[in-house]
């Protein structure tokens, strides 16, 4: 029995947290861009839902986003309710809430809500709040916080909470007193105390609103820190800033510099990156970003280093895994041939070939289409799973370029290809039933195709099909209609998935 099966609830709970964080980072990136920033994702894999359970990778904490223009770092915290809080370790400095952040950086707080039953179904809602790290640090040093314990699944870390009050309804500020804010909510006057208590500890708050101000639900109205909804990109740093960071004593600074410098096509940049690549005392995770940056700048020294990691250290699964994740964030056209060669190399471990399939999905280019479909011929289930997920990503990014190709490929008699493509088409039909319904019916071209079309139709919610569409399925092929009906009944039954324990 697989590790995932043994710990299904725990695994899905972890995926939920990762997915919620990813949605928050994506939203923060969009908003920062709209406010004039040039944001770059820094934390490896922070834009992806993927959770790797087959490899134990020891990384250090890195801020989620960096603005290349102003040099500020943004740590994103997604929440299920309005709260200014962060994870914190009392014993491990590398897990402290402020690790890798400077005084003029920001922590971004975003509320997300669930939009479906799947663990990845989240949406960012409401205002996005920014808090200056310096303000958080001052409040922390002054004891203006609450602390609670987290569960064992999260390593028994603590949660630091900076007391903040949020509006539970729309309203208007009538007056601000020493100890309370008076608001008009509907036709009622309401007093909001300017303090919070927890565990016998009382913390005084300062108002964040003004008299006469209109208040919307979810708005921060009082806190121990200043909270803003906009951070203008009000300064500019040159390439020298990142060159200097590359020799910083902080490994987070060096990691950030190694990743940021790939965006500056300059002879001096290539020179300092080459020098760093030969630094025997540097950490691997930094060197991988240096190598990918050189590759991104069309420097063969970076390519040679990456080839060495993949070919000479072929038994070092974690090293290849990490370099592939770094490559997935590089220039797609430059990184594609390297990742493709890993995917198609049967001598490499299954776990890294699966990573390569995932990485092609992150690159999201149509050129990866054929290689991913050919992966369905593999005997390795994890490779096939990641190839199917990658194909779905590419379809969603380049629908016009690949949709016809997906349907035509399915019609070619190849059971292994059809098996993987059926999963992809099942997901596509769920999102675009009206557009692709007839295309799916047209996939019934032989006896084997009936099995997989039945699957594609059967995994949909039967309520989404109109009576006319159901009749079209019946008239197309009675066997397909019967099989789809069986799946509609079984998959919706409470007995599906029921175990003896």
Describe this structure in words.
The protein contains 19 helices and 17 strands. It is of the alpha+beta class and 501 residues long. It is globular and about 80 Å long. The strands form five sheets. The protein has a five-stranded mixed β-sheet with strand order 1-2-3-5-6. Strands 12-11-10-16 form a four-stranded antiparallel β-sheet, with no helix packed on it. Mean pLDDT is 92; it is low at 1-9. Helix 7 packs across helix 8 (300-311). Among the domains are: 1-136, no CATH class; 405-501.
Condensed summary:
The protein is an alpha+beta fold. Helices cover 46% and strands 16% of the residues. It has 19 helices and 17 strands.
Characteristics of this structure?
alpha+beta, 19 helices, 5-stranded mixed sheet, 501 residues
Which secondary structure elements does this structure contain, and how are they paired or packed?
Layout: H1 3-6, H2 8-34, E1 39-41, E2 65-67, E3 73-79, E4 85-88, E5 106-114, E6 122-132, H3 133-141, E7 146-149, E8 158-161, E9 164-166, E10 171-176, E11 180-185, E12 188-193, E13 195-198, E14 201-204, E15 206-207, E16 214-215, E17 220-223, H4 239-245, H5 251-260, H6 267-277, H7 284-296, H8 300-311, H9 317-327, H10 332-343, H11 350-363, H12 369-374, H13 381-397, H14 399-411, H15 415-431, H16 433-441, H17 447-458, H18 467-476, H19 478-492
Parallel strand pairs: 3-5
Antiparallel strand pairs: 1-2, 2-3, 4-8, 5-6, 7-8, 9-17, 10-11, 10-16, 11-12, 13-14, 15-17
Helix pairs in contact: 4-5, 5-7, 6-7, 7-8, 7-9, 9-11, 10-11, 11-13, 13-14, 13-15, 14-15, 15-16, 15-17, 17-19, 18-19
